[in-house]
Write a structure and sequence with these properties.
The complex is a heterodimer.
Chain A (H helix, E strand, L loop, with lengths): L1 E4 H15 L3 E5 L15 H5 L4 E3 L4 H13 L3 E5 L10 H15 L6 E6 L14 H5 L5 E3 L4 H13 L4 E6 L7 E4 L12 E4 L4 E5 L3 H14 L4 E5 L2 E3 L3 H11 L2 E8 L4 H13 L8 E5 L8 H7 L3 H13 L1
Parallel strand pairs in A: 2-3, 2-4, 4-5, 5-7, 6-7, 10-11, 10-13, 13-14
Antiparallel strand pairs in A: 1-8, 6-12, 9-11
Helix pairs in contact in A: 1-6, 3-4, 7-11, 8-9
Chain B lengths: L4 E2 L6 H6 L4 H26 L14 H10 L5 E3 L5 H7 L3 H8 L33 H14 L6 E6 L6 H13 L3 E7 L2 E2 L2 E2 L13 H4 L2 E6 L3 H16 L5 E6 L17 H8 L3 H12 L4 H24 L26
Parallel strand pairs in B: 1-7, 2-3, 3-4, 4-8, 7-8
Antiparallel strand pairs in B: 5-6
Classes of the chains: A alpha/beta, B alpha/beta.
Amino acid sequence: MAEKTYLQAISDGLRQEMRRDKRVFVIGEDVGVYGGAFKVTLGFQEEFGPWRVIDAPLSETAIVGGCTGAAIMGLRPVAEMQFSDFISCGWDQLVTVAAKQRWRAGTPVPMTVRLPSGGGFSGGPFHSQNPESSFAHIPGLKIVCPATPEDAKGLLVTAIEDPNPVLYFEHKHLYRRIKAEVPDDRYTTPFGQARIHREGDDVSVITWGAMVWTAAEAAQQLEDDGISVEIVDLRTLVPWDKKAVLESVSKTSKVLVLHEDTHTGGFGGEIAATIAEEVFEDLDAPVKRLTAPDTPVPFSPPLEKAFIPQVDDVASALRELAEY
Amino acid sequence: MAIAREAEPVGSLQEVKEAGLDREDLLGVYRNMLITRGIEERGHILYKQGKIPGSFYTGRGNEAAAVGVATAMDDQDVGTPLHRDMGVHISRGVEPWRIFAQYMGRADGPTHGRDGNVHMADSRLGLLAMVSHLPAMLPVAVGCALAFRIREEKRVAVGWFGEGASARGDCHEAMNLAGVRKLPVVFVCDNNQWAYSTPTYLEYATEHVADRAEAYGFEGVVVDGTDVLAVYRESRRAIEKARGGDGPTLIECLTLRMEGHAVHDDAFYVPKDMFERWASSDPIERFRTWLREHAELGDAEEDEITSGVKKLLNEALTRAEESPLPDPSSLAEGVFATPEDLDTPHHK
């Protein structure tokens, strides 16, 4: 056990899997000599060689499609999108080919795509997005969004082991900001099991990724006012832990669904609808959603601050719910 | 000005033998071409009888290209054939009754009614099922080749595409990655001159699609796609070159799509004299004549092959019609793979 950043935990998990299983290889832009834009694969090429840590041309379609072919041939590819935004260039390979292959042709596609996502540092419209909800809508893809270093490692190992295409959204704003104890040994963190980040009685927050930490700060503020907030970290969106969400909502009877992605069609809508369908009678207030607005992600700091839900935004939403 | 090499037609039996086919193999090739056309002709009738839901696509005119390439592949090689490449499925050993079952959306088709027409493949025979988005399977074929390269296996992937799909970015990315990494992949362009109603000059501005190969750092070759033995010879060369570590080849098989894009399309936009010209170069008739002239195919032997194919297809159709329709309650099964799905030799 040692203290690791979120980024180190991803890197360690990947390195361990590559040492353990020769079928695992990494492909992406600048992942080799440079070690990846965020240095997740720093030193990997020296250890594993150029055919297991492959510097690809600027070709997201060929990277994702190539991983699909290699996975069907029995390897365990881990693709890196330099930024999750660039997955739009590989959309067709992921959605049209990989996601449907098991269901229609009986061929499993065990591959992982790593997607550095999220904003908070003026990345602008093309380096800050959280496209997880778009992919959660596609049958056949699994969606992972770790919030802690321990989960970052455990969920990555599970993703590589999984016999399906898994989209692993690693939030860039957590890379070096969040540190915690991470077990040294190999372990897996199961998909579809939410984590209670903080226990509480008055209001529930359902969220994932970096918003877990925004919610935690807001909850701390509210504690001083005697409002007890429970935070449910979903960890994975496909599959998502309905049971844990509904149990928390039934316990507190008030719920805020929070995400950094934009509003309309965001995965929060699915959660809100499910709560309304299944535990409507346990609610003491309408389900509340707090998300980014329906705009592209802005560049300039005051605009970006207005776009991404801030601690104060979460705190006032929770106060409104508590007072309802 | 053409850059790609233009392949010579095939001449003597001796030349064919040197390329690796004996007389028995040649008759097998002929038989596979007959089965290919027979399946599609019967499929067309089934469609008109209302027994095939959706639409129906054939590869009439492409039998030599498909069978020629597939014959040049080894058992351990893999491929991603498309909707004009029924001959690949047949040559790799897919049973005709399963194809009829696929056409009719029955439970025993390779996709169990989940996908239609030629959107199918038997992975045990080294084939990967195509999708409608063309040429989306080219990057996948390159990925198969990448796996072979990583594991240092002497295997080759064959990726098919059409001249229409050559206009899409997938084609460029796949060929570029394959060229940069010198991967063991052979790209086969079924150039049937019509992408639905769009002629070649609106799809690409070079003389040949294969001219592009040079730009990706490998060889391009144009071959008459109605000459099954020339297709075989060029494919064999390219596949063995890839197997030997000398990188990809782009083979362009020039044919004419002898029917519409699908059966609903009467291809009014194809000039009549174009059809007439290419009809005189029908791949099956051409090979039959060659076999009679160079390999002593006589009437009795020919009748035996023809009636054998007829019998095979009759039985296949009966068996397919006996196959049940899929059970609607099975719809949601298998959206996600389970660990047991990986319990196959190549996932060990």
